[in-house]
Amino acid sequence: MKKNNIKLFAYLLGVLALGAFSSCNDFLDREPLDQVTPEVYLNAEDQLAAYAIAHYNFPTHSGWGNGTFSYDNHTDNQATSGYSTRFSPGEWRVGQNGGSWSFSAIRECNYFLEDVLPKWKAGSISGNPANIEHYIGEMYFIRAYEYFSRVQALGDFPIIRNTLPDQQEALTEASKRRPRNEVARFIISDLDSAIMLMNNEPDGSRNRLTKLSAQLFKSRVALHEGSWLKYHKGTARVPGGPGWPGANADYLSGFSIDIDAEINYFLGEAMKASKEVIDAVSLVANNGDSEGTAIFDNPYYNMFAANDMSDFDEVLFWRSYNVQENVYHQNQHYLQRNGGNTGYTRGFVESFLMENGLPIYAAGSGYAGDATISDVKELRDDRLKLFMKAPGEQITDANVEPYPDILGIPEVKYVTGYAIKKGVNRDDSQADGSGSYTGSIVFRAAEAYLNYIEAAYVLNGSLDATATNCWVALRTRAGLDTDFNKTIAATDMAQEAQGDWGAYSGGNLVDATLYNIRRERRCELVAEGMRYMDLKRWRAMDQVSNYQIEGFNLWGGDMQDWYLDEDSGESLLIPEGTEGKTSNVSSPANSDYLRPYQIVKDNNLVYNGYNWHPAHYLSPIAYDHFLMTSGGEPTNSVIYQNPNWPIEANGEPID
What are the SusD-like N-terminal domain coordinates in residue numbering (predicted)? Predict the structure, then answer.
């Protein structure tokens, strides 16, 4: 813990430099830096503000690449040129150290709350009282956010509310894990405190967290835990379940759980929190423009590509950039000019409905087929038309989309042929390498609509008026027939299961209504990094065995004609298995559809497809953490390992 104290002290010195003193005289009158102590800080509104924002750790665009629009890679929605060890059992192993078992950020939240809450109650913090309360609320939010990341990765986790002395005995005692439902309740308690204290306009631009952000996030946490407990019920991944490792911990000997009551509690909390957002925020309009330069005047399209997102009420919290201040990213270089080493999967693209509300396979759907990408998009859900590229479409004011380069180097490759258009800004100068400054959304209100629909149906087995209205609003904006019962009646679960892992929970197909609720979520949150979290909480990967990721119809349509040598007219495509040549595409003998993981066979652990191991629903705890909390004998540690993982560095999952 000494290292954390040094880090905290260094940060507090940074707060001093950033804004603790506002005039030259104040600067000259300050104490010598080598005599500064933490006690002189966190006494004024601006110091609280600086401390809180320094602890923002949200997924936003940064560096080179597609930014957050690549975060759905390694799911059934998106693919990249490399594979993930999560789908190659035996390759993901127990680490020697590190991992999600980390407390430094949590400790810094606890330090703030320990120091500030007594001062706030005593009225000794200078500044605007509403702003002071807001920044305190932000730190409750940030602690909740940090804890939620641990629950997602590890499940059961220690609940630590205070800073701890640098003593081995105290640190070992604090390492005792608590059942995940208790941790989730602790998170919700922190979010309730945040909601009580925060306001919705801390800076007028929503570049800071807001009360609505906290309400939305509360609905996410509650839905996550309620659905996890429901679908993982009866496994060792749920407290009290058969084989639950916490049952062997002496300090949990008195633990009991009414799991159905817990499921109902969390789903009810998800409904209440999401409704607060639904009642306050309407969805941004879609004017239907999806072709030519008119797309750049469509508010729904612009919401994801704007430089300034403060005009979109649906955006509850976003990050802004400024090239002049050296705060920028480079995602437009990839989104506008190439494939960015990612692409939508065939299964994802085929899940989008037709405008008339029918699945593509249904009689009378009007599906034009997939001989070309333009055909794929014809008469489809506006979200597919708006957020997937097709050759010849306007990409910026000055440029149109070329055919997808599936043969390029990995950094710029169109991995599946189906390319991301979400977030593409009309200004092509942002792609010249000097820096992109489009905003990055962290929270938007549409998620609350989706959370309410799912929580209501899973809890009650039916849709109430609010859920119905939310679903109609989402389908209206997507340009779909609003009669979702028509879609449900036309849904063939056997067909859907071929390309959508969300058709399953625990290896079994879900009912058509629940599936279409999940489909709505999948299509609304396209390329927003939510898919893997959803698949895990739904327990939707038990059935994933030798699953082949596919892209566009390379061999069965017209698209292979794009890849001809301009001089000789010969094909540039070299199928896998071609004798004497290095392959650059998958073989038509395996599928008409491009298979990005069957281009090369040798030394390719996923050539035969994706496979899932149940251990992967939770991450393993690294070996050193057991060693440090056991007196030298890891198996005697107060920490217990997650299901199907050994207490062994480099250990493979246990069947």
Answer: 26-223
